[in-house]
Design brief:
alpha/beta; 5-stranded mixed sheet; globular; single chain; 136 residues
Length: 136
């Protein structure tokens, strides 16, 4: 896990239980503090089966909702080494959908990064326009 500009870059191997999710959550805290307050996004490369047990699924939904309230505007997912990529996208996509997060699926990091940065830039542009004083 690392920060690159306005991006949180995550790599992980599924499946996940609640303990694994809590471990990742605690590792992310310092980065999340630095990202909060302005639009930011996530690029997650997931290896193996990205299955979350029900408790981990609910916790991830809650975490993503909290992140959205702190400026998270998009999440890009790259699924690798997975036997059932369509199921994986459907499963994890439903988690992000329940959280209300804008999510995209990509085959490589460069495409994912371009998509997330485009959304961040769009949000930054909207923010700067809304903060510009109106002339009468």
């Amino acid at each position: 896990m690392k920060r690159e500009g306005r991006l949180l870059i995550i790599e992980g191997r599924g499946p996940w239980n609640l303990e694994a999710l809590k471990h990742s959550e605690s590792r992310a805290q310092e980065i999340l503090k630095k990202l909060a307050g302005k639009p930011w996004g996530v690029i997650a490369t997931i290896y193996g089966e990205p299955i979350h047990v029900p408790e981990a699924e609910q916790r991830l939904i809650d975490l993503v909702k909290q992140d959205i309230s702190n400026g998270r505007v998009a999440s890009a997912l790259i699924v690798k080494e997975c036997d059932t990529p369509n199921f994986a996208k459907s499963h994890i996509g439903s988690i992000y959908e329940k959280a209300g997060c804008n999510v995209g699926y990509f085959d490589n990091f460069e495409e994912a990064k371009a998509w997330v940065e485009g959304i961040i830039n769009s949000q930054n542009s909207s923010l700067s326009k809304s903060n510009t004083p109106k002339v009468r």
